[in-house]
Design goal:
- It is a single chain.
- This protein is mainly α and 372 residues long.
- The chain has a domain of 100 residues.
- 58% of the residues lie in helices and 2% in strands.
- It has 17 helices and two strands.
- It has a two-stranded antiparallel ribbon with strand order 1-2.
- Helix 2 runs antiparallel to helix 7, helix 6 crosses helix 9 and helix 10 packs across helix 12.
- The chain starts with 6 loop residues before the first helix and ends in a 7-residue tail after the last strand.
Length: 372
């Protein structure tokens, strides 16, 4: 686990260090209570809690103490790197911001090296135990029991997860299950594996399936209310996987899609727009503005349409149009911050480019991430 110093792994590092050093008995991350447990669920929770406590005790003995000052230095450097990444996402002077991020990343790596975890834990003999502990800590015994008590299939999915160290390592590297819903993520992953043979093999389609199951356990909740977002049905994660699988195999996506990690796939397939809208966006852009499919600034691949063709104004919306036609109206009539952000995000994701919302000055900037 500690021999991999990718961006995603460095994000997971504080989780591992802190989680192992604190009490393993809390359920604070889960809003449910024991009252929702059946008698079978109570037994399951007790078994999960016992396993988590035993892992906690074992890992406390095996993991070397981390110097407090070195840990503080890492936290500070990591925060500075995140800040530099945000500035790059919204900067007008891209080159200066990119240099700042490069320097901040180098400093973070220096602080990681100072922790000397690679030397002390680089053998990998604790990887699966660490992964199991972090997954169980994040999911909580209560959360796992609430899912597993639903039936034999659900209990078997939890057992399958906790007995698969390699899968848990991949899950944690990809950022973990949203809201700690690991059981639900395993159900989506299992359903995808049943409808397609492609994600059974390592590669982009396996990464896509994993990214979808981890992120789409929760419906994409928009924190802003616009006519684009109101009344939208939840996107089915299995259908969304099959949609992107076909688009990829048909050569419809950006050439870089094949190199995306599971973490990056989270921010591609979880778009709240419908499959029909995503197809329309790709077709429209290639036919109407093919010049925007490549840009001198890779952050604006496909998304510069919000600057060239989407007027910045407050139009009167026709709210009677079908949900799948609203994005067309938005491009036609224009919009302000949230509307433009939605258009840019969905357009990037339609081509297989990961994109995330970013807040700047109370408004939503169009796009955070292109991995070009």
């Amino acid at each position: 686990m500690f021999t991999l110093i990718s961006r995603q792994c460095r994000r997971a590092l504080p989780c591992v260090l802190v989680a192992v050093l604190v009490s393993a008995g809390t359920d604070a991350a889960n809003t449910a209570t024991d009252a929702a447990l059946t008698p079978a669920g109570q037994s399951l929770k007790a078994a999960y809690q016992e396993r988590l406590s035993a892992l906690h005790a074992e890992l406390l003995k095996a993991i070397p103490t981390v110097d407090g000052q070195q840990r503080a230095a890492y936290d500070k450097a990591h925060a500075a790197e995140n800040d530099a990444e945000v500035r790059l996402a919204v900067a007008e002077q891209a080159e200066d911001a990119r240099e700042a991020l490069t320097a901040a990343t180098a400093h973070t790596l220096e602080t990681v090296a100072a922790l000397d975890l690679a030397t002390r834990l680089g053998r990998g003999d604790l990887d699966h135990k660490l992964a199991t502990f972090v997954v169980m800590k994040d999911a909580t015994p209560l959360g796992l029991a609430l899912f597993a008590q639903q039936g034999d299939e659900q209990a078997a999915l939890v057992a399958q997860l906790l007995d698969n160290g390699e899968l848990m390592l991949r899950i944690l590297t990809a950022g973990g299950a949203r809201d700690g819903r690991y059981g639900q993520a395993m159900k989506i992953y299992s359903d995808i594996l049943q409808v397609s043979q492609h994600p059974h093999q390592p590669g982009i389609l396996q990464n896509l399936a994993l990214g979808i199951c981890l992120e789409m356990v929760v419906h994409n909740r928009q924190s802003y209310g616009t006519f684009l977002s109101r009344g939208r049905p939840a996107v089915d994660p299995v259908e969304r996987y099959l949609y992107y699988e076909k688009a990829y195999l048909d050569g419809e996506l950006d050439p870089s899609f094949k190199d995306m990690t599971a973490w990056e796939c989270r921010w591609i397939a979880s778009d709240p727009s419908s499959n029909e809208e995503l197809t329309w966006l790709r077709t429209m852009l290639r036919n109407y503005r093919p010049d925007l499919c490549r840009d001198e600034d890779p952050r604006w691949y496909y998304t510069r349409i919000i600057k060239t063709d989407v007027a910045y104004r407050r139009p009167r919306w026709d709210t009677t149009v079908p949900v799948n036609e609203r994005i067309q109206q938005a491009i036609d009539k224009g919009g302000i911050c949230h509307i433009r952000a939605w258009i840019a995000l969905s357009t990037a994701r339609a081509f297989g480019i990961p994109a995330r919302r970013m807040e700047q000055g109370g408004a939503t900037s169009p796009i955070e991430s292109s991995t070009k």
